[in-house]
């Protein structure tokens, strides 16, 4: 069957069966037209779809790359071609899906944002440790930065999970995996101070969650986000001002100061070292920038 006929059937399939949006449909349609242009430039004699093999399709990625497309665009265009051949195979038009082994470009991972040390210090110093609410906020920020917790992990901590004598906290991470994480001395001081004032916030002594709201209920993720976002706006121009930036900052500062990646990975609760590897890229990029700025021969 001629590839043009199959493309027409594929278009109907996308619109009727898959109900793709107009934008996605147009993107796929454009990618298929480019594939036809590519086949023409490669002087592939037969446009019978069953005659098109893996080695005919594979160079399409390089052809697109030479035209200066971004990795995001390349990924979309290759996905369109792979979907097309998968459709043809599923409908029995071709016996073998020649595009199945065509690699899909991997997108570059965006490096995580982090705060500078003086920004961390300024936000902590801006809080009044004698006020119960501000003491709570100070303890939360200190703990997130000191131990690299996810905000969900921090908000689920019970009073019994904190071991002030051993400077550690027990948390329940992703997949219900429990881990014990060290807590820095400054964070311990803030926690001790907050726990002492916490009774002024809570009328019901049966609420065992460490971080509580003005009404004495467990502090919600939405409230925690608002609190930290508002405080970070006063000290940083970083575009990211969520609680998660404190986790990124924890990992980046540890690696910058010589901590081994295995230990950092365990403290973060990552199931794989490769997930933690992104923070080493942050440190390397910082070194490159410092080198270019300072070295006379850079």
Overview of this structure, please?
This protein is mainly alpha-helical. It contains 14 helices and 3 strands. It has helices at 3-17, 22-41, 54-57, 59-66, 71-90, 117-125, 132-147, 151-155, 185-198, 221-232, 244-256, 261-268, 273-276, 278-294; strands at 162-163, 168-172, 178-182. Strand 2 (168-172) and strand 3 form a beta hairpin. The radius of gyration is 27 Å and the shape is elongated.
Oligomer: single chain
> Given the C-alpha coordinates, what overall shape results?
elongated
Q: Summarize the amount of helix as a percent range.
A: 55-70%
Largest β sheet strand count, sense and barrel closure:
3 strands, antiparallel
- If helices are DSSP runs of H or I spanning 4 or more residues, what is the number of helices? 14
Indicate the low-confidence ranges by residue numbers. none
Strands in their spatial order, largest beta sheet: 1-2-3
Tell me the domain tally: 2
Please report the total strand number as a whole number. 3
Q: If classified by CATH, what would the architecture of the largest domain be?
A: Orthogonal Bundle
Mean pLDDT across all amino acids: 87
Topology diagram in text:
Elements: H1 3-17, H2 22-41, H3 54-57, H4 59-66, H5 71-90, H6 117-125, H7 132-147, H8 151-155, E1 162-163, E2 168-172, E3 178-182, H9 185-198, H10 221-232, H11 244-256, H12 261-268, H13 273-276, H14 278-294
Antiparallel strand pairs: 1-2, 2-3
Can you give keywords for this protein?
single chain, 298 residues, mainly alpha, DNA polymerase, domain 1, hpI Integrase, Chain A, three-stranded antiparallel beta sheet, elongated
């Amino acid at each position: 069957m001629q590839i043009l006929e199959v493309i027409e059937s594929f278009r109907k399939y996308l619109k009727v069966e898959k109900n793709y949006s107009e934008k996605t449909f147009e993107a796929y349609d454009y990618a298929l037209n480019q594939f036809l242009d590519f086949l023409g430039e490669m002087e592939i004699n037969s446009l019978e779809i069953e005659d098109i093999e893996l080695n005919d399709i594979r160079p399409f990625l390089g052809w697109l790359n030479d035209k200066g497309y971004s990795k995001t665009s390349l990924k979309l265009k290759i996905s369109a071609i792979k979907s097309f051949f998968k459709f043809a195979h599923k409908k029995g038009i071709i016996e073998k899906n020649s595009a199945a082994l065509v690699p899909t470009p991997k997108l570059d991972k965006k490096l995580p944002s982090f705060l500078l040390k003086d920004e961390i210090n300024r936000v902590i110093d801006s809080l009044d440790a004698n006020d119960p609410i501000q003491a709570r906020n100070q303890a939360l920020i200190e703990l997130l930065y000191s131990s690299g917790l996810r905000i969900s992990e921090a908000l689920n901590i019970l009073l019994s999970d904190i071991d002030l004598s051993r400077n550690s906290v027990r948390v329940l991470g992703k997949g219900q995996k429990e881990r014990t994480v060290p807590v820095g001395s400054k964070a311990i001081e803030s926690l001790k101070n907050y726990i002492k004032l916490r009774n002024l916030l809570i009328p019901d002594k049966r609420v065992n969650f460490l971080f509580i709201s003005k009404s004495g209920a467990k502090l919600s993720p939405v409230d925690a986000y608002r609190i930290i976002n508002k405080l970070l706006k006063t000290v940083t121009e970083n575009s990211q001002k969520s609680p998660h930036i404190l986790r990124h900052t924890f990992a980046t500062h540890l690696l910058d100061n010589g901590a081994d990646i295995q230990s950092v990975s365990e403290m973060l609760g990552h199931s794989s070292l490769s997930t933690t590897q992104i923070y080493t890229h942050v440190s390397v990029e910082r070194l490159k920038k410092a080198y270019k700025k300072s070295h006379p021969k850079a």
